[in-house]
Design goal:
This protein is 82% helix and 0% strand. The protein is mainly α. The longest helix is centred in the C-terminal third of the chain and has 24 residues, at 129-152. The radius of gyration is 20 Å and the shape is globular.
Length: 184
């Protein structure tokens, strides 16, 4: 009996070491590039990607990376529209983490509504069609996320309205795969 217990403890300790010390080559690569990047636009994009890598295993760490991306994107010297997209994207990602991994629907809605407003402003003011398209896609994604958070709080009418608004944007963008999601 003692031998069986010892073997079980041995196997459990080996398995836990594998999980703790397991490598994530993509994360390692992103962190390496991040450390060697000087330009804020590259650093923002990398912080969002690094945050994505941490979502499931460490939501709080993920939120820290998204918060850092937001702070970098909103620095006073970063006026380019791409930084506004990164700021909105970091808020959007934070909202997803709050909803999916932490179950904090109110905080998720707060982040996602703020993200939507930034995307909406970019879409209205940008002279670049490419930036407008990215902002409208961000708006549609935000509407879907707002709908999802409301659905999970049993606010079905609000959720359905947000899905309909997202569907209109996806149709405008000719995004048939996301349009199908909005209708499902």
């Amino acid at each position: 009996m003692k031998l069986i217990k010892a073997l079980i403890i041995f196997f459990l300790s080996i398995c836990s070491c594998i999980n703790i010390f397991g490598q994530n080559p993509k994360l390692d690569s992103l962190l390496n590039v991040y450390k060697n990047s000087a330009h804020d636009s590259i650093r923002c994009r990398l912080m969002l990607e690094i945050g994505n890598q941490f979502q499931k295993q460490s939501p709080d760490t993920s939120l820290q990376w998204y918060n850092n991306a937001y702070k970098t994107a909103t620095k006073t010297e970063n006026h380019d529209e791409i930084f506004k997209l990164y700021a909105a994207g970091s808020l959007q990602a934070s909202g997803c983490v709050e909803r999916y991994y932490k179950g904090n629907y109110q905080k998720a809605l707060e982040y996602t509504n703020k993200s939507f407003n930034i995307y909406q402003t970019i879409a209205a003011k940008s002279k670049s069609r490419e930036i407008q398209k990215k902002a409208k896609k961000g708006m549609a994604e935000a509407l879907m996320n707002i709908g999802n958070a409301n659905w999970l709080q049993f606010s079905y009418n609000v959720a359905i309205e947000k899905y309909k608004q997202a569907a209109k944007l996806y149709k405008l963008l000719n995004d048939s795969s996301n349009l199908a999601l909005a209708y499902s």
